[in-house]
Amino acid sequence: MQYAILCYNHEEITSAWTKEEDDLCMKQLLAVQEPLKQQGKLGPVARLLPTSAATTLRKTNEEPLVIDGPFAETKEQLLGFYVVDVENLDEALGIARDLAKANLAMGSYEIRPIQMFIPNELK
Amino acid sequence: MTDIAWIDKALTAARPQAMAALLRYFRDLDTAEEAFQEACLRALKNWPKNGPPRDPAAWLIFVGRNSGIDTIRKKSRLTELPPEDRISDLEDHEAGMAERLDNADYRDDVLRLLFICCHPDLPSTQQTALALRVVSGLSVKQIARAFLVNERAMEQRITRAKGRVGSSNVSFETPGPAERAERFAVVAAMVYLVFNEGYSATGEDCTSRIPLCEEAIRLARLLLRLFPTEPEMMGLLALMLLQHSRMPSRFDAEGQIILLEDQDRSLWNRPMINEGLALIDKAMRRAEPGPYQVQAAIAALHARAPTPSDTDWKGIDQLYATLEVMQPSPVITLNRSVAISKLSGAADALAMIEPLAPKLGNYFNFHGVRGAYLMQLGRRGEAREAFDMAIARANSAAEAAHIRIHLDRLMQEGAAPAKN
User: Fold this and answer.
1) pLDDT digit string, tens, across residues B347-392
2) Are A53 and B279 an interchain contact pair (Cβ–Cβ within 8 Å)?
3) Model pTM score
4) Looking at the domain B3-101, which fold is it?
5) 3-class SS at A57?
6) Which site among B221, B244, B286 would you substitute to test the A interface, given the most A Cβ atoms closer than 10 Å to its Cβ?
7) What CATH number did the domain enclosing A88 receive?
8) Are A121 and A43 in contact (CB under 8 A)?
């Protein structure tokens, strides 16, 4: 069974870390990842930029709505995610629009830039 | 990270919102600060035992408000509240409490708190010092070190500023859109001022002043979280991130300035650049340009160039032209001339800045840039004079030293033919 492990924390604290604190944290996290990588148990890993860099696309009955800022509703749940490598936010929004159109349900897509990405190691 | 270190970070992070809400309750800076202090003390006692609350700011506001009311009652010799048993078991109430502390309130509270620090009667140095003390919670010692004054002088400066602010009549009503926009512009300018206090530091002062850059970035992130649709706040945060990303490469081991084109770009902080680029990209989509966005876009063009020769000078020239229209200023024209010198040569750049002499005659950079163009044109004597004028107007030893390097080079090159 594959699992996604999602990380939550107060970003006003983590984004105010000094470089030393941040480096230490990343070092300790990488040390946990290393044996998993060796065993072929580690999929892609991503660290996201703060939510202030996020944009949200909300599906409506008409044209989807583009909203600055992160997805903020608490009544919907996180169901999945995509990682795309594109030129700019417009291109990413275009993809999100296509996904919204293809999706049977309503829902939203938060588009958040990735700060650090480690590719898939799963066989 | 130990419990105490984590709590310390959480208290610092929650401070602007908590202080802002407490100020709305008590309408007095000192009472709000005392209430916040008391809440922090109780957090230090309570959190290691009961674990950190899910919403530290909400917890601090709730506890701070109770303790503030308690203090006021004691002062007016009324019956005491029994606060401890009320606050000892908060967990169950937190969800409801967080919902009551609606984000809409928060954002105007934080904006008001920052705006109060920007009182127009206060000189800008007092505005920034007050904001760093009250909003960011830096100690007087830290602020004094950052502003290169002694602690007592800074203590007095902050006390005086608080006195002035106390007598101001800032409305505690929810501001209308026009008033909010005005407050926002004033506060953004103050945040950028804090940043520049740190960014303009050179040489030995750097280490004590870099925290100002970090603090300004933290405040801008906070403001953008509260006002996620403000393109100028996206621009300001992007601008500061892009400028600060170059910090590790701006000075050599002796503290001498390294010019942008000579910097080791591999030292630039990539995550900061990525965040800055993402923000400016996002801001541009709104098509409501403003000076911070344009300046960030200029910084972005530098950040995107893998080597100096890849720099999009044409784009930079166009952006400066836009900025000149938005915010006419001789300093912007001076900066634009650098792009012109790259695009069409030093002669054109020099012609562009000569008319600025009456306005920028006392500005260090004007003479430094002018000297560099004259040097490129082989007008050595005039270049030397310009560099001398720059040194006389330098704001710091590092600035003067930087110009002296040009002068030395000029002297050596000038001396060489004479030997032959």
Assistant:
1) 999 999 999 999 999 888 899 999 999 999 999 999 999 999 999 9
2) yes
3) 0.87
4) Rna Polymerase Sigma Factor; Chain: A (1.10.1740)
5) strand
6) B221
7) 3.30.70
8) yes
